[in-house]
Design brief:
By secondary structure, this protein is α/β, with parallel strands linked by helices. The chain has helices at 17-31, 49-63, 78-90, 119-130, 151-163, 177-189, 206-216, 222-231, 235-255, 270-278, 282-286, and strands at residues 6-11, 37-40, 66-72, 95-99, 135-140, 168-173, 196-200, 260-264. The protein binds flavin-adenine dinucleotide (FAD).
Length: 287
């Protein structure tokens, strides 16, 4: 068993007043298992940097747990990114999830707008301006980023982010543990030793799981897709099956030296907490 294991939880800025009203209860439930930090998405689904900041401050005020804002750079100027970094530093933030962000539908990856093109440039920028004041997490893609020209080119681009100064990486969601183990072997061969924490998305439905996987290029094993499709009219049975599949994935990852787990909570406490309980409970796993 690895020690100390780290659990972190991703939240996104709520998009409606109703969702905002529900979030404090979700944060309270998740904070009770003492995650290492909450990360807060930026720009995903059309949210603004202001939304990220407000959600971050809600978590800080309510729990005191460490927060890590995501920061996407594509389409931004250096001055805009510099201003955000200053604001985060003044708010006591010590960790940033540094990303390129998704390109506008009209842009080709080679001609991304703004003063940053790729996440490695953002990592370098943060290091230049702020030295070691922030821990920097970057994204990793065990199954390859969908716009990459090849797995080896994508891995080379990952290596550049590490060389630019990333302290750790969080992976895109996946349901195929072998893809993660293969990625870690490639890291070992390349001399990359930063922790690469698997990103875990609980399964709570058929249509949303298929959509999430299609959106990020993750392989949903055929047998899992077929079983979810069959169970979609029986919510309780689907949740039970999804829990079993993802709990087995988590156990396999942790048994094989994953440094922790980063949960895509989708602003729901229960699916993530049930997973942790099924895997033996946060305290037992941390011990
Ligand atoms: C943990 C995690 C959190 C995320 N959070 C958010 C969020 O909050 N908001 C949001 O909008 N999106 C988020 N995303 C999605 C992410 O922004 C997209 O996947 C985006 O398309 C790529 O971001 P990146 O930081 O991985 O980019 P990069 O590492 O820059 O890579 C992007 C693509 O460009 C290629 N590439 C990199 N460098 C070069 C180069 N020098 N020359 C040619 N090609 C290159 C890579 O192979 C890859 O295909 C998240 C993803 C993950 C895994």
């Amino acid at each position: 068993m690895i020690s100390p294991l780290s659990f972190s939880f991703e939240l996104f800025p709520p998009r409606t007043p109703e969702a905002a009203a529900k979030l404090p209860a979700v944060i309270e439930q998740l904070a009770a298992v003492r995650p290492k930090y909450f990360s807060i998405t930026h720009g995903a689904g059309g949210s603004s940097p202001e939304g990220t900041y407000e959600t971050l401050m809600t978590v800080v005020r309510q729990t005191g747990v460490e927060v890590a804002p995501h920061l996407t750079c594509v389409g931004s100027t250096r001055a805009e990114v510099a201003a955000l970094l200053t604001r985060y530093r003044e708010a006591g933030v010590k960790r940033i999830v540094a990303l390129r962000g998704d390109l506008p539908a009209t842009a080709m990856s080679a001609s991304a707008p703004g003063e940053f093109h790729y996440a490695n440039e953002l990592v370098s920028f943060i290091r230049e301006r702020h030295g070691a004041a922030f821990k920097i997490e970057v994204a990793a893609y065990p199954e390859m980023h969908p716009q990459a020209s090849s797995p080896s080119a994508d891995f080379e681009h990952f290596r550049r982010k590490v060389e630019a100064g990333a302290d750790g990486a969080l992976t895109q969601l996946f349901y195929n543990a072998d893809a993660y183990f293969d990625f870690m072997e490639r890291c070992a061969k390349a001399g990359i030793t930063i922790p690469v924490t698997p990103g875990i998305m609980p399964i709570t439905g058929f249509a949303n799981t298929v959509r999430f996987c299609a959106g990020c290029g993750a392989d949903l094993p055929r047998w899992v897709r077929l079983r979810l499709e069959e169970l979609q009219e029986d919510k309780a049975a689907l949740l039970e099956f999804g829990l079993e599949v993802v709990a087995r994935l988590c156990e396999n990852l942790l048994r094989n030296d994953a440094p922790g787990l980063h949960f895509y909570t989708v602003n729901q406490a229960e699916p993530t907490l049930r997973l942790l309980t099924t895997c033996g409970g946060a305290d037992a796993l941390r011990a």
